[in-house]
Amino acid sequence: MPKMNLSHFEATLLFALFCSAVLGVVSKTTDKERLRYGLRSFAYFAGTVFGLGWLMYLGHR
C-alpha cells in the first residue's frame, strides 16, 4: 500500500471534510439540508483553520 505524505494543513482539511460529511449525514433529515449543513460546517472548519493559522503566524512574529 502506498504511503501518504500529507502536510499538517492537508491533513487538517481532510479531517474537516470527513467531519463535515458525518455531521451532515447524521444531523439533518433531507438531502438538501444535509448537503447545505455539510458545506457550511466545512466552511466553518476551514475558516477556523485559516484564522488560527494567521493568529499563530502573527503571534510568532
Count of all domains: 1
User: Describe the biggest sheet?
Assistant: none
Radius of gyration: 15 Å
What class would the helix/strand composition place it in?
A: mainly alpha
Contiguous uncertain segments of 5+ residues: none
Please give the alpha-carbon distance between the first and last residues: 41 Å
Number of helices: 2
Please state roughly what percent of the residues sit in beta strands, choosing from under 5%, 5-15%, 15-25%, 25-35%, 35-45% or over 45%: under 5%
Q: How many E-type strands? A: 0
Indicate the mean pLDDT: 93
Multimeric organization: single chain
Percent of residues in helices comes to: over 70%
Helix and strand sequence: HH
Which geometry do the CA atoms define? flat
Tell me the layout of helices and strands.
Blueprint: H1 8-27, H2 31-59
Descriptive overview:
This protein has helices at 8-27, 31-59. By secondary structure, it is an all-alpha fold. It has one domain. It is flat and about 45 Å long.
